Amino acid sequence: MTAGSQVAAHGTREARGGWRLSGALGVLAIAAAGASLVIGRTSGGPTFGFGGPDLAPIVLTEIRLPRTLLALLVGGTLGLCGAALQGLLRNPLAEPGLLGASSGAAFGAVIVFYFGLAGADSLALPAGAVAGSLVALAALYGLAGRRGDFLTVVLAGIAINAFAAALTSLALNFAPSPYAALEILFWMLGSLADRSLVHVALALPLMVPGWLLVIAAARGLDALTLGEDTAASLGLDPRRTQWLVIGGTALAVGGAVAVTGVVGFVGLVVPHLLRGRVGQHPSRLLLPSFLGGAVLTAVADIAIRLMPPGPELKLGVVTALLGAPFFLHLIVRARPAGGA
Amino acid sequence: MPFSIAKPSSTRAALRDVRRPRALARRAQRAPVAWRWRRGRIAASFATLLLLSAGARGAALPAVASINLCADQLVLTVAAPEQVLTVSWLSADPEESLLAEQAARYPLNYGSAEELLRFHPDVVIAGAYTNAFTRALLARLGYKVIELEPEDSIADIARNLRLVAAALGREERAEALVAELHTREQRIAAARPEHSPATVVVRPGGFTVGGHSLADELMKLAGVRNVAAEQGLDRWGSLSMETLLASRPELIVLTGYRASQPSLANAVLEHPALRLVGARRTATVPAPYWDCGLPQSLDAAALLQQAAAP
């Protein structure tokens, strides 16, 4: 990411630290991907290897590869968008999952899929997810984003999130397919099980432009840390930054949710863990957060496969188990010292 | 790992072969020497392994993996025992399955694509409830996936028996089962009681069964009136305690599903109003009899008829 180095005038040491961190996270991501390709799961629980020379090519390329790729891409998306939203809203609790971007996307995908507008392999599905995500984020920003204080943004996000989740349940209950009601769980908790390369091809064309839009906002995000007026005086239009982040997040998160359902907390946890190492510039946090999100999601998905024998856990269950206590910790710490 | 990326053509060939293991075995049988020359030693010894397992399974009949509770039980009913490679884990649970003992003899699966690959099935039988991603992935890998629609009537039971049988080469067995099913159906129909008691099925969670369902057809067959269906409920839905009381049922049917395990759903069955409603009788028809459509589902009708008899 070149944006990170463009603001290097503020502190080359921090910038260098950011690159070093990204390098380390990149190595971790590769290691996690390698482990994810080698570790499988059968009726007897976790397995290591590919189940014999006859199966190896299929298991590797058609089952573990798509799963691993999606874990990295979806995790990266969530990490990147979490970091960008935290920068845009100047709020450490912003995250696609908590603010309703993911639930909105799930609602959009559910409408498109269950009401016969498109099959599971059609691009209309992620397009619906993108639209849902965009509506949720635009509503949040319109209602509470620009001048909203810390608490307003989070509460508005929680309300939009709950509303979108309720709409999803409602839609699934009224869907013509009798199985739809059973699949609420998938859309709400997310999973990578048995995805194929088709799903990678479905999500990637939306994720990549989404990432690029978010990355294009990097300089604007740095300027925003000085306040909107200062940013404007530096010649950076805050509105442009705002729409780059919202549009990019909607695209990338929409693509992700359309194939994996809602995976929460990755976008919250990762930027926080990394912020202390790169300083307060949002731009420097983007690449490490992308890589960190990829690592965390891949590791969570590996953890699922390492569980004792039984039906597979949903990915969102594991990320919530890790993320929710972290979220609580942040809330307690972020509470104003003199507050009631 | 033995998988080599350096030889893309042999990788592709291996892929093709694994997609149709039986075809590979047949080809190896026809021209083992030429085959060995083409594919190399490791692959050939693998083919021998396949041949051996093919022999063990019975030469002609396709080997089957089933990944859905209802499909499992149909497969266990129709298939020759040596055809079955694996069934899903629920079917070995006596609370869920009527054929738990039989199912427990086979390796159990949790329905993921990766574990199924290892069984080298010729056919995979799935239910419409089975994870759509798994079905799509298996189809993409070249497996023959049969997807069974749920059985909403006795005719659907016959349809699915025949569908499974056609995939397994067991048509004769299915025809015998269907003939028996219809004979038994007629026998139960002939024994309907003179007075049809107003009946309500109370399932865990306060659910009941409405019209256009297998349970409703079994109730009709047994000669009891399904109050919920008469009130316009379609397939299934919830039944409030108040509706239940207002319908003045003469017979309450419980399903006794996982009665020993705590759940909110089962707590409904403990509602004091259920005891106060003054139903003349209660009957218990275990859930597995009507959750999946099987030849044994007619036992549910027989049980209802017994309970309705004066």
Describe what is shown at a glance.
The complex is a heterodimer of chains A (340) and B (310). Chain A is mainly α and 340 residues long.
Name its key features.
heterodimer; A: 340 residues; mainly alpha; ABC transporter involved in vitamin B12 uptake, BtuC; 14 helices; globular; B: 310 residues; Rossmann fold; 11 strands
N- to C-terminal distance of chain A: 43 Å
Helix coverage percent of chain A: over 70%
Number of distinct helices of chain A: 14
What is the helical fraction of chain B, as a range of percent?
40-55%
Output the strand order for the largest sheet of chain B.
3-2-1-4-5
Write the H/E string of chain B, N to C. Answer: HHHHEHEHEHEHEHHEEHEHEHEHHEHH
Separation of the first and last Cα atoms of chain B = 71 Å
Strand content of chain A: under 5%
Report on the structure:
The complex is a heterodimer of chains A (about 350) and B (about 300). Chain A is about 70% helix and about 0% strand. Chain A is an all-alpha fold and about 350 residues long. Chain A has one domain: ABC transporter involved in vitamin B12 uptake, BtuC (Orthogonal Bundle), CATH 1.10.3470. In chain A, α3 runs parallel beside α8 and α9 packs across α13. Chain B has about 300 residues and is an alpha/beta fold. Chain B folds into 3 domains: about 10-55, no CATH class; about 65-185, Nitrogenase molybdenum iron protein domain (Rossmann fold, 3-Layer(aba) Sandwich), CATH 3.40.50; about 195-310, Rossmann fold. Helices cover about 50% and strands about 15% of the residues of chain B. In chain B, the strands form 3 sheets. Chain B has a 5-stranded parallel β-sheet with strand order 3-2-1-4-5, sandwiched between helices. A 4-stranded parallel β-sheet of chain B has the order 8-6-10-11. Chain B is globular. Classes of the chains: A mainly alpha (about 350), B alpha/beta (about 300). At the A-B interface, β1 and α3 of A face α1, α4, β3, α7 and α8 of B.
